[in-house]
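Summary for the steering committee. The consortium agreed at its last meeting that each partner would contribute one worked example illustrating the joint modelling workflow. Our contribution is presented below. We chose a case with several input lines so that the handling of multiple components could be demonstrated. No manual editing was applied between input and output; the record is shown as generated.
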Amino acid sequence: GENVEQHPSTLSVQEGDSAVIKCTYSDSASNYFPWYKQELGKGPQLIIDIRSNVGEKKDQRIAVTLNKTAKHFSLHITETQPEDSAVYFCAASNRKSYQHTFGKGTKLSVIP
Amino acid sequence: GAGVSQSPSNKVTEKGKDVELRCDPISGHTALYWYRQSLGQGLEFLIYFQGNSAPDKSGLPSDRFSAERTGGSVSTLTIQRTQQEDSAVYLCASSTTGNTEAFFGQGTRLTVV
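What follows is the complete predicted structure of the assembly.
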């Protein structure tokens, strides 16, 4: 089955700096790569996703890049703000298995 | 409803008792997932329902865990003879099909004492 590795497990940045979280996956059939943000006491919420037919996607301060050859994808947050502090999960899925396989999460702390 | 609804939000039970956790997915979503999240940990897959297909139960940790989905809508996760290691937040999610954005509920925090 699919295996998703996520690094780092914790990340502290100064407000205004950039944050990068990286994930690798094992199943070459995976073609959908969402990123979820989980705030304390809430369920995860999608912030951005990418499909395997594109290499990069941006939404304001958030971007995701995908390297299918190397089987890794990354989340980039620029101009970080205190409200970006949360746990971020990457995931991978495909048309064969459908269910998301999640990374173990990254706790991001943005220091004012 | 507007989102995925889970009940109860909190459940405290005595070791050895059975519990039922309920998930009401977004109307029209054919895919439904259950995940377990222990304190400060990642999301552990439990079970996946897709339409009328046989569910993927490969993540259920033991035969004390079972789930059903009636009429392709509401789902119930049952844990029999609860143990302290079952204490966790149980998250339900739904999506239009598999392989698309999953919408999560707020979770049920289960505490076994």
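The CA atoms of residues 49 and 103 of chain A lie 14 Å apart. The interface with chain B takes residues 31-32, 34, 36, 41-46, 49, 89, 93-95, 97-105 of chain A (CB under 8 Å).
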